[in-house]
Amino acid sequence: MTQLSLKQGLRTWKNAAKDAVKKEFMQMHDKHVFKPVKAALLTRQEKFAALRSIIFLKKKRCGKIKGKTVCDGRKQRHIYSPEDVLSPALSQDGFFATLAIDALEKRYITTSDIAGAFLKANQDDFVIVRLRDAAVDAMLEINENKYTPFVTNEKGMKVIYVRLLKAMYGTLTAPILWYKLFASTIMEMGFVINPYDLCVANKEINGKQMTICWYVDDLKVSHVYQ
Q1: What is the rounded distance in angstroms from the CA atom of residue 34 to the CA atom of residue 32?
Q2: Strands across the sheet with 108-113, in order?
Q3: pLDDT classification of 1: cutoffs 50, 70, 90
Q4: Average pLDDT for residues 49-76, to the nearest whole number?
Q5: pLDDT over threshold 90, residue 61
Q6: Exposed (0-12), middle (13-18) or buried (19+): which is 133, by Cβ within 10 Å?
Q7: Distance CA 212, CA 193 (A)
Q8: Sign of CA dihedral 130, 133, 134, 140
Q9: Which residues contact 113 (CB under 8 A, 6 or more apart)?
Q10: In 3-state terms, the chain is what percent helix, strand and coil (to 5)?
Q11: Which residues of 12-30 are buried (b: 16+ CB within 10 A; e: fewer)?
Q12: pTM
């Protein structure tokens, strides 16, 4: 897989890169990841604190060009203490223990990942992101009537300020917001989180234990019955 910056990707892959950027922002538009705000309504401090959006382009092995947008969350470091944003992670010991149990009980195993995981978690804090040039062009292509009133010009660049409604990769709180959403969801389904590894959960189904272990948005699920 080849990964390039937006500028390099546009130069290398041209229209395919533009289409990838548009598709990436179409996903965020459809999932209501953010809402535009007028620059004139933001204070000078809010504009200064706005996170920069960064777009990467990847060429997958199949030849498809894919866009990935992240936030530069460094400006948030003075807002949150590390312990407030630390998200549990699956331990190596915990993972190998589940594999041993799977083997001993001859369980069936399936793996999967959750598409756009972070974008499913709500962002409760006030977080402003600054979209520029190619991102603005993509938003205007998606819905020109909606986004045109929010376009402003800063040093020759087209800019749109948006408020995050969902967790976005690169923000410091995104991992813990996603963890809380996923953990609470499976607990509502009857799973019990393992107190020794907070990324392992179990539930008895048809008299046998089902185990889920996860690392961010990658899952391994096992049960005796397929």
Answers
A1: 5
A2: 108-113, 218-223, 208-215, 200-205, 192-193
A3: low
A4: 93
A5: no
A6: middle
A7: 9
A8: positive
A9: 217, 218, 219
A10: 40, 30, 30
A11: ebeeebbebbbebbbebbe
A12: 0.89
The mean predicted confidence, pLDDT, of the chain is: 95
Q: How many residues does the chain have?
A: 226
* DSSP H/E element including 19: helix 15-30
Cα 223 from Cα 220, distance rounded (Å): 10
pLDDT for 122: 97
Query: Would you state the structure tokens that stand for residue 85, as one six-digit string?
Result: 């944003």
- pLDDT bucket at 60, cuts 50 / 70 / 90: confident
Report the distance separating Cα 115 and Cα 31, nearest Å. Answer: 12
Kind and range of the H or E element at 152? strand 152-154
Provide the pLDDT for residue 115.
87
N-term to C-term CA, the chain: 33
